[in-house]
Amino acid sequence: MPHTRPIRTADQALVREINLSLMMKHLHEHAPVSRANLAEIIGLNKSTVSSLVTELTNHNFVSEIGIDNTGIGRPSRLLTLNPTAGFMVSAQLNVDSISVICANFAADVLWSTREKFKLQSDQQPVLEHLTSLLRQAIQMGQTLQPDKTRLFGVALGLPGLVDQSTGTLLFAPNLGWRDVSICRILTDALGQNVADLVFVENEANMAALGEYFFGAARGFHQVLYLSAIGEGLGGAFVNHGQLFRGKSGFAGEFGHMTMDPDGELCRCGNRGCWETQVSQTAIFRHVRQAGQSSVLDEAIQTDTLTIPMVVDAAAQGDPVALHAWEQVGHKLGIGIAALVNAYNPDLVVLGGILSLGSQFMLPAIDAELHQRALRWTADATEIRIAKHGADACEMGGVAMVTQSVLLHPERFLG
Amino acid sequence: MPHTRPIRTADQALVREINLSLMMKHLHEHAPVSRANLAEIIGLNKSTVSSLVTELTNHNFVSEIGIDNTGIGRPSRLLTLNPTAGFMVSAQLNVDSISVICANFAADVLWSTREKFKLQSDQQPVLEHLTSLLRQAIQMGQTLQPDKTRLFGVALGLPGLVDQSTGTLLFAPNLGWRDVSICRILTDALGQNVADLVFVENEANMAALGEYFFGAARGFHQVLYLSAIGEGLGGAFVNHGQLFRGKSGFAGEFGHMTMDPDGELCRCGNRGCWETQVSQTAIFRHVRQAGQSSVLDEAIQTDTLTIPMVVDAAAQGDPVALHAWEQVGHKLGIGIAALVNAYNPDLVVLGGILSLGSQFMLPAIDAELHQRALRWTADATEIRIAKHGADACEMGGVAMVTQSVLLHPERFLG
DNA sequence: CACATTATTTTGAGTTTTAAGGAGAGATCG
DNA sequence: CGATCTCTCCTTAAAACTCAAAATAATGTG
To answer: What is the pLDDT of residue B249?
Structure first.
């Protein structure tokens, strides 16, 4: 009865894999660095480091970029991860656009595109457009980098619930899509050889990992990420560099916490969900209901209000805009306090719309956090603004693929 | 510059440790089982299994308990973890009592005691009483088990915030204690040789691990645990057998989520905290405010109301009691929905008072959960009643120590 | 130009898993 | 009742890996 065996037993191959991964992680973090230095930092024997470096160099993962002959003794040869070791493709599917980037192993963007489309009732053309762009991006990666390069992965961020066990997009309210076997569709379109390289993830999860890897959350280990996009509110938690996914990958759906049983009606049918209080819609509602003259009056009349306009108005001292941000800041702070008590993070990152108005919300957020969260959890928590804006999701995809290579370089040594 | 090296590099010793741990885990789970069977289940070579079994047997961890000669071929010799391989001491410090148990490696309770004390302003006598009982329990373990036994660990559950990085009880509201260096106190009292064997943890965390290991949550992998004790509400999350602790160990403090900005005043100074809605106090409040005749009237008058009385009354169909439980069930369900969206668990375990009245609350909980949580997360979530009652915390301590031995048997092979 | 110093490579030893073969112990069958 | 079968467990040799120490390389210093 030969059945799949999920248990990984330990043997010499595992030892090698772990140490290779340690080397990659430290090269990623400390490059440029010498072999001797690596040995000291990691704690491996110098001969072991030499052996591992040889293997990584042979496979083009690592290259010598110079010689450090400051000081006495034999000069050390400085090593770094080779940016052209491979490349990755990362995409985001939005309500009205597809953006795709191609990045090298140093996370430099080699190529990017953003194409608008009209949301049709039919998914087929959108998916074909997406896969066509992905193919194009892979092509670009292979063209722009030298011969020995390889595809490290393809990441896709989606505005909905992604079931990680089946690779299915279960529900994307803004797209109106349900039960799309997105992983299978991608591997069918891109070839079975990329099957193990496909990462499909909720966009908030992607963005959170991006902030951890390349952004505001570098060096933090329990990161709560919050991002308001349009009507919705997304979230994620990154624990020691690992996305916290829960049973199926749906964790981090904070938008429908009931904050007020008598609150506004939410599109989910309940009252007082958090996202009715802290989304773009909530900002606009506060501005409209101000009943006070404001520089935004004309935009309100013509229904052309945008978040950047409310940010600018607040920056100019417009009381209506300032009040709107402050109100949302309070509601945001109340929810953050609950989540901080629940997760005990060392960092809360505000992304999306929340990062735009953050300067006007932070005092209120901070006040509510310290009033409502336990003193010790609140004191252990820093609040920062996301570094990535509109490209947060794509950068998160790059982070996810990069992380997979750093964790499992052996998969690319064949 | 020799400094501590937090990175664990991989070598043959690690291989051995991992495989030893695999053996222990599977012996714990599948015993009694033969060597050949273990080899098949785990995926290790038969000779490797034999070698590991020899080592474990030599150190008294494993013993042969019989021969299975059903079927053809050479009969297999059945192995099991030796219950007398070692013992552990687990304690809970309560508001008015200390309970201490001593258990063997099979989690059988060898000895237990529960002593009441009057809470004094001075901690000193309480701590001395505690350490004295712990010493006594260790003594009992050594007396009751044969020569080759050893102390596997000492666990202590506390009703407050425990900072895991320093081993300090930062704040225990019901005890009125602050900043007690409990880990240092225990090792000072019990000897430096137990320093690595001491586990101090919040009581909800302990209890959650107990349910995962020995109780209602066996076999689940993302377990949300909720427990109401007195005025308070405690919680914890167990992810793949690992307690989710957050930055300092404070994660799981769900009691002060703001559920209603106009709600009851909480002892924390804010309004509408979840624990004002779902604790023992909330039940009593609903009973008192019923304004309807009830079998509980006399107890209400004499101020002798207890939770078991409200449970009994509900079981007899008393409408006031039933209504109280239902109201609390609804509030509980609203909060659980928020947490289920946040954590995407596969199981929610209700402990403490919540387990007592659960049968009267479950319909309401279920209704709110399915109304407010995302369909897919709600569908992925089961709700169960805790198996352990008053001894949940102690059993959790046993679980924590047992888990440490299963994960790191090599620490006891010296 | 010899020597000190530091970096890297080479060599051999020590572990550990694995694969293959053999011994042990009872059931089955002629 | 003995031969054979079948499965368990142990023994032995091979392969893989890290580690320690020695050898080699490359530079600065006196």
So the answer is: 94
Taking C1' of D6 and every protein CA, the nearest residue is B73
Rounded CA gap, B115 and B174, in Å? Answer: 18
The predicted pLDDT at position A295 comes to 75
Distance B328 CA to D22 C1' (A): 75
With CA atoms as reference, the chain B residue closest to A13 would be B15
Nearest CA-CA distance, residue B301 and chain A, Å: 32
Cβ distance A161 to B376 less than 8 Å, yes or no, reads yes
| pLDDT at residue B5 is higher than 60 | no
Nearest to B159 by CA among B171, B151, B141, B143: B171
Q: How far apart (Å, rounded) are the C-alpha atoms in residues A134 and A155?
A: 10
Contact state of B254 with A18 under an 8 Å Cβ cutoff: no
Distances, alpha carbon A289 to alpha carbons A273, A282, A331, B262, in Å:
19, 10, 17, 22
Which of B5, B256, B264, B365 has the highest number of chain A CBs within 10 A, making it the mutation to test binding with A?
Answer: B256
Q: Where does residue B144 rank: exposed (0-12), middle (13-18), buried (19+ CB within 10 A)?
A: middle
Tell me if the pTM is above 0.90. Answer: yes
pLDDT at B64: 87
> Which phi and psi (to 5°) does residue A113 adopt?
-150, 155
* pLDDT interval class at A121 (50, 70, 90): low
Provide CB contacts within 8 A for A272, sequence distance 6+. Answer: A258, A259, A260, A261, A262, A263, A264, A266
Are A43 and B254 within 8 A, CB to CB?
no
When scoring B374, B375, B383, B407 by the number of chain A Cβ atoms within 10 A, the one with the most, hence best to mutate, is B374
